[in-house]
Amino acid sequence: MERTTYSVGIDLAAATFVATVLESPETVKLAHKDFDNTAAGMAEMVTWLEAGGVGKDNTKICMEATGVYGEALAYFLAAAGWWVAVHAPLDVKRAFYPTGHKNDPVDSRQIAEYVLRFEDRLRRFEPKKPVLEQVQALLATREQFVRQKTANLNAIKALKRKVIRTPMAEDLFQKNVQQLSAQITQLEQEIERLFRQDPDLHQSLLLLLTVPGVGLLLASHCLITFEKLDQPYNPKVWAAYLGIAPLQKRSGTSVFKPDSSRHFGPSTMRKLLHLGARSVRTHKPVFRHYFERKVAEGKPKKLVLNNIANDLVRIICAVLRSQTPYIPNYRSVHPAVSVSS
């Protein structure tokens, strides 16, 4: 693989960002410089890079994933043809010992050094389709509204248990619940409308909805996740990303624990996938029989549900890869690939 000549590390804040250019981990090409986190500041940085002999063909730019602080800059650089990566802050932090000063110039240099040392780990940033960006925002909004609705329902229950009732407070909470329910319905309708605007995404959505346990919300999250992964058709990559892959924890002769998942990942999608696994366990005979058989063998219920969730991920990947609907009575020629066989 051809090595990068220059690496640019960018440390972001709300109002400004700092950029440092390295030629090697020990050699600074362009010392750190501050820019406004605005369109003018972004254009100024590009001019600064080109004036210093740093061009698009021999440079990789990396910034930490800081949400909306860096989104505009990532889109700007990608649209201008620069190679840019958006990486998890924890990965950069773990790559360096916590010694010396901690400030924006130091952080930007460490990010640039991370590019040179771990170039093979970087993935080029590619903007999502506008439809998926909007769907992702609507899904996040819906999740917030669901939490608010749950909080209001819990408040109503608490008020109704009091000896001295307060009808006005109960009524106001009830109105909030009704309003939030209506808004959640509107959000779901808008998500469906957005998908219908893109024929390819809409076709994939309809295919995913044929999978047992997969509804609009889980299917939407699946299509967003598909765009994030380097190997989007590999169910093992999905399982690792979601935090449902069974991982070993063994060392020497003293540490020997059962395989378990890492217990963290995209929380909303993990929740939806767990609900999907519970649904098929209840309503689909093949999954129900598998669940009952494994529990009778002494397997923990959570473990068996996690296995079913992994099975659903394999079906989702197969449907997306083949672009064909789920076949309920399909049996693989290699039965071992499916936990429900």
Care to describe what's here?
The protein is an alpha/beta fold and 341 residues long. The protein has three domains: 6-121, Ribonuclease H-like superfamily/Ribonuclease H (Nucleotidyltransferase, domain 5, 2-Layer Sandwich), CATH 3.30.420.10; 130-197; 222-337, no CATH class. It has helices at residues 39-51, 68-79, 89-94, 104-117, 130-160, 167-197, 199-208, 216-228, 235-242, 267-283, 285-296, 301-322; strands spanning 6-12, 16-24, 27-36, 59-64, 84-87, 247-251, 255-260. The chain has a five-stranded mixed β-sheet. Strands 6-7 form a two-stranded antiparallel ribbon. Helix 7 (199-208) crosses helix 8 and helix 9 (235-242) packs across helix 12. The radius of gyration is 25 Å and the shape is globular.
Question: What's the structural blueprint in terms of helices and strands?
Answer:
Elements (H helix, E strand, L loop, with lengths): L5 E7 L3 E9 L2 E10 L2 H13 L7 E6 L3 H12 L4 E4 L1 H6 L9 H14 L12 H31 L6 H31 L1 H10 L7 H13 L6 H8 L4 E5 L3 E6 L6 H17 L1 H12 L4 H22 L19
Parallel strand pairs: 1-4, 4-5
Antiparallel strand pairs: 1-2, 2-3, 6-7
Helix pairs in contact: 5-6, 5-8, 7-8, 8-10, 9-12, 10-11, 10-12, 11-12
